[in-house]
Design goal:
Layout (H helix, E strand, L loop, with lengths): L2 H24 L5 H13 L13 H25 L3 H7 L2 H13 L6 H18 L8 H24 L4 H8 L4 H11 L4 H6 L3 H28 L2 H4 L5 H14 L5 H28 L1
Helix pairs in contact: 1-4, 1-11, 1-13, 2-3, 2-9, 2-11, 3-7, 4-13, 5-7, 6-14, 8-11
Length: 290
């Protein structure tokens, strides 16, 4: 990769890693589903008026909008509201890598390599450690919500793959049009009957959090990521995503003084090792052979 493109890949990983701490700030004043609805609303409106519809079937946009926008982000925001630290949320959400591999095997009949199986096995050991250790950083409920969010993200990945080589920015703008209405309705029924009052009384830091999550983490980051995927192979670009939980945990420790227990550190190392095996396994074997 060219040096500038390496910089862009590192920038995206940093933006997405910091995103989890920013979400935590937003959740201090707004309920999770309302915050998720606003996040997609600011992305979609008024962008859909100037961005053309992506060259793919409407059902792909709707499916990604539901699984990524309505389900995945709602579960993520709720998990962080009920007990998941920003750092561990950034890590456990990467379970989507393992879920995507398994679902691709079922849906597209893609082969699973030995290194991917090994990585899934190692990561499951890490998840088992988290299950055995409920703490202020991660409750059992929040972990289950994060894993379900990762599963929903994996399903959306398959629909994005079926969509083909679409313009990622255009695709994300139109996907963002799907979640706001159902999320706002759900929020009104189960979270607050006075959403306008919540918006009017919010601190400026909460509005900055919304701007970051919507414009920077979604529009800018996905635009850069899509540009990289059009220039290079997925095998070249996607490993940079492994930096997301690293940045997420570092940022959370600085912003919220989060400290992991020994068991949580062990689980973190196993999950990261499993991710590395899934993504880099074959390449590492070739490098070691040389």
């Amino acid at each position: 990769m060219k040096p500038l493109d390496v910089f862009f890949a590192l920038l995206v990983a940093t933006i997405w890693g910091v995103n989890f701490s920013v979400i935590k700030f937003g959740l201090m004043e707004w309920p999770p589903v309302l915050f998720s609805a606003l996040r997609f609303a600011v992305v979609a409106i008024p962008a859909v008026l100037i961005v053309p519809f992506p060259k793919t079937a409407v059902r792909n946009v709707l499916a990604v909008g539901v699984f990524l926008g309505v389900i995945k982000f709602s579960l993520l925001f709720i998990a962080m509201k009920v007990g998941a630290s920003a750092g561990l949320a950034s890590l456990l959400l990467q379970a989507q890598v393992m879920f995507t591999i398994l679902l691709s095997y079922i849906w597209f009949k893609e082969k699973i390599t030995v290194y991917q199986l090994l990585g899934i096995f190692i990561a499951c050991g890490g998840f088992a450690l988290f299950f055995s250790n409920s703490s202020e950083n991660l409750t059992l409920l929040s972990m289950l919500l994060l894993l379900l969010a990762g599963l929903s993200w994996a399903v959306s990945n398959l629909f994005m793959k079926r969509a083909g080589g679409v313009n990622v920015l255009h695709f994300m703008v139109w996907v963002s049009l799907v979640p706001p209405l159902p999320l706002l309705l759900f929020s009104y029924l189960f979270e607050s009957k006075q959403p306008i009052a919540l918006l009017l009384n919010a601190q400026w830091t909460t509005w900055l959090a919304l701007a970051y999550v919507g414009f920077i983490s979604t529009l800018l980051a996905f635009a850069l990521w899509g540009r990289l995927l059009t220039k290079y192979s997925a095998a070249t670009v996607t490993p940079f995503a492994l930096l997301v939980p690293v940045v997420g945990m570092l940022t959370a420790s600085l912003a919220f003084n989060e400290h992991l227990t020994i068991i949580e550190w062990m689980g973190t190392c196993l999950v990261l090792l499993g991710l590395i095996s899934c993504v880099f396994g074959a390449s590492l074997r070739t490098w070691l052979a040389r």
